[in-house]
Amino acid sequence: MSIATTFGLNLLQLAFVVGLAPLFSGIAGRWRENIQGKRGPSIWQPYRDLRKLFAKEDRRSESATWIARFAPYAVCLSPMLVTLLIPVLTDFPLFGAFAGDMLAAGFILGIGGFFLTLAAVDTGVPYGAMGASRTRMVGFLAEPVLIVILFAVSFVANSTIPYIVQQQWVHPPAHFFSPAHVLVLVAFFMLIIAETGRLPVDNPLGHFELAMIEESRVLDFSGRSFALLKWGSAMKMVVLAVVFVNVLFAPWGLATTPVLQALAQAIIAVFIKIVVLLAVLVVVETSFSKLRLFRIAEYLGGAFVVAVTAMIAAVLSP
Amino acid sequence: MNAQAFIPEINALICGFFVLSAFAMVVVRQIGACLGVFIAQSLLLALSAFVLGASPFSWHLYAVGIVTLLSKVIVIPWLLRRFVPGEIYTLREISQSIDVPTALLIALALALVGFVLGTRLVTAAPLLATQNVIVGLASLLIGALVLAVRREAVPQMLGILAMENAAFLAGIAIAPDFPLIAELAIAFDVPLLAFIVAILTRAVYRRVGSTAVGELAALREHPQ
Hints:
The complex is a heterodimer. Chain A is mostly helical. Chain A has one domain (3-316). Chain A is 69% helix and 0% strand. Chain A contains 11 helices and no strands. Chain A has helices at residues 3-35, 45-55, 66-83, 102-122, 126-157, 162-168, 173-176, 179-195, 223-249, 260-287, 296-316. In chain A, helix 1 crosses helix 9 (223-249), helix 3 packs parallel to helix 9 (223-249) and helix 8 (179-195) packs antiparallel against helix 11. The longest helix of chain A is centred in the first third of the chain and has 33 residues, at 3-35. The model of chain A has no long low-confidence stretch (mean pLDDT 87). In chain B, helix 2 runs parallel beside helix 6. By secondary structure, chain B is mainly alpha-helical. Helix content of chain B is 76%, strand content 0%. In chain B, 45% of the residues are buried. Chain B has helices at residues 2-5, 7-27, 31-54, 59-83, 100-124, 130-149, 153-174, 180-208. Chain B is globular. Chain B has one domain (2-215). Classes of the chains: A mainly alpha, B mainly alpha. Chain A binds chain B through residues 173-174, 176-183, 186, 297-298, 301-302, 305-306, 308-309, 312-313, 316, 318, and chain B through 6, 8-10, 12-13, 15-17, 19-20, 23, 27, 100-101, 104-105, 107-108, 111-112, 115-116, 119, 122-123, 130-131, 134-135, 138.
């Protein structure tokens, strides 16, 4: 396969994530309201929001430095970079496949979060700084979970490159049905909830500043910066969902050859898989209430214990 | 034929959820949720028995599954709901001797011990359903921890029953042809235990207004 083909396919994957990320968040938003018995906004609402925000003036506080200007781009770019490393649509490695492993993907996502945290302090809003410190708390509790999950996965697949993991980790049925697999899935699911700021860790729809975690960091952004932040967080959600469904849970339905028909099928299959994951997430989100702040440590501690057990089961499996 | 090849795999999947339920028993705070976890765990045990009993067809394993379903999924929860006062299930904070994160870390260490010992055991004597023994041993130790940590009557008893579940999970893999007398003994023994604990809890709750076993250390002549 020529480099041009794999590079082109990489760009197609990027277009899939960038283009459909607002749609996925729109679907989740609509279903969340539907479950509560309300009609909910259209699934295209995030696109309308983005168009409106891009047209508006970008106001920034007087005390803000270059960090506040740069952070939205970092938040938006980091999931795009990760997209180049993971199998979104294809079964075979692409141009960027060996540029970094899953740990690198985690760290690249962390860069976006890092700059957003700095920017939240930078703007000088007290709520921003509070949200920043809380996000760091969730972040440093979530990090060991991610790393231990990667350990468990790499003990089975002998690699942390997502494309190779995807081939090795679940394809033999004995791996798919092993206790380690169940435990890794549960731990990663809990991690997605914590990382994307969903209930029961954080309420993304809450408007009470004292209770906010993730959202309070973006209070002081407007116009184009705010649009980029929203788009970036939607993309981060899609990237994590893709890792969950394509690498860890159900690596079927991906294109095995770079043919147009196979790619079209893969797009539909991946779309359906992510939508199913969103449905589960929405049900979880609406059936739990928000945890108190210091209970989050317990929640992520639980995820950590599950991940370590997965690793033990993976290492000791006879 | 194809379905038969999948039996060990499905069983391993059930075992994965089983060890998860053992951890859930440590984490869950509300007594009602604790009971829910116990019901789920018993269901998994019954499922494992049914799946293992299907391949070399075994009436004994089916009997284990049906006895588990009847006694632990239906009778015990009904007894506990019927005789333990309803207010206890809605309490938000239940009494514990160690806080949840510490208990979780200890549970993790116990799970490690269980997995290591179980793997040794399985390699020493090869079995059909290896995961059952490993997961059963780990869950048994975690159940003992629940028993030690909880200081409320009902969760403590659920800890004993969780240990019993775990021992059964390992047992059906070691001895698929159980003597019927053991199954029947379990079927009558365990609901009786639940019944007695429920009645006692009810009586204690009426007199003292709480079922926190940890606070019943000193003997008192007259109730307050």
